[in-house]
Amino acid sequence: MWNQLSVPSGTLYAWDPTSTYIQEPPYFKNMTMSPPGTHRVKGAYCLLNLGDSITTDHISPAGSIHRDSTAAKYLMERGVARRDFNSYGSRRGNGEIIVRGTFANIRIVNKLLNGEVGPKTIHIPTGEKLSVFDAALRYKSEGHDTIILAGAEYGSGSSRDWAAKGPLLLGVKAVIAKSFERIHRSNLVGMGIVPLCFKAGEDAETLELTGRERYTIDLPSSVSEIRPGQDVSGVTDNGKSFTCTVRFDTEVTEFAYAFAMDFSCFKLNPIS
C-alpha cells in the first residue's frame, strides 16, 4: 500500500505552498557559512513587560487557536473553516502559524497594558494597542529592534523550542529577566537572542523601568570578547542606566551564528 502512494521525485522535499500545516522553515533562507557576529542592541523598544513565572506555554501556546487571533485570521484568509483550526501544537510545522501564536496565550499579563489580561501590547511610538504579532511586525517594518522585560523564572515549564524560535521571528534581540529556566535560556542563545539577568536585588520595578523607554545594551562588538557571566551596561533614552549579566553558559560561538542549526551546519562543513 505504501509503495502505491504517489510521491514527488528529486532529492529535496517539494513544499506545498497551499498547505497550512507544513511550510518551509524560514531560518535557512539567509544562512551563510560565515558567522554574522553580534547584533548590537541599540535604541530597542520593549515588546512586552512581563512578570514572574512566564512559562513556555505563555510564550508559545500549544492549545486551541482562538477565533480572534492573528493565527485564526491567517487560516481564514486561506479558506480554513473555524471548526478546522485545530491547535497550535498540531500546526507547529508551519512557522507562519506559530510566529502568530507567539505570546498569544489568552492568560498572559503585559505590564504595558496596566494589568490587562490577553495577548496584546502597546506600540510605543504611537501608543496604539495591537496584537503582539502586529506590533512586532510594525517595529520590524520601521527598522527597530525589540527586547522583552521579565521577572523570575522566565521560560519555565516544558522545553518548547518554539518558545525561542517564535521571539526570534518576531525580531526580539534580548530578554532581560531576574532569572531564566536553564533549558529555555540555552534555547534563546541557540536562536541568537541574548539572555540578560538583572543584578541581584534588582529588577525592572526597582530600577523604575516601565518598558516605555528605548534600550541600548553595550554588548561587545566582537564575539571573541564575549564571556559567559560577564557584566554589560544598559541605558535608556530617558537617562536611566543599569548593569546586567550575560547568561551565556554554553559556547559563545553558537550565539555568533544567531541560529543553532547554522552552527551545526558549520561544524559539519567547516570553512577551511
TrEMBL record:
Lyase as UniProt keyword = yes
Q: Which CDD domains match?
A: AcnA_IRP_Swivel
One of its Pfam families is Aconitase_C
Q: Which GO biological process categories is it annotated with?
A: oxoacid metabolic process
UniProt cofactor(s): [4Fe-4S] cluster
Domain called Aconitase A/isopropylmalate dehydratase small subunit swivel: residue spans: 72-200
Q: Name one GO molecular function term.
A: hydro-lyase activity
The UniProt keywords, alphabetically, are: 4Fe-4S, Iron, Iron-sulfur, Lyase, Metal-binding
Identify this protein by name: Aconitase A/isopropylmalate dehydratase small subunit swivel domain-containing protein
The organism named in the record is Acer negundo (Box elder)
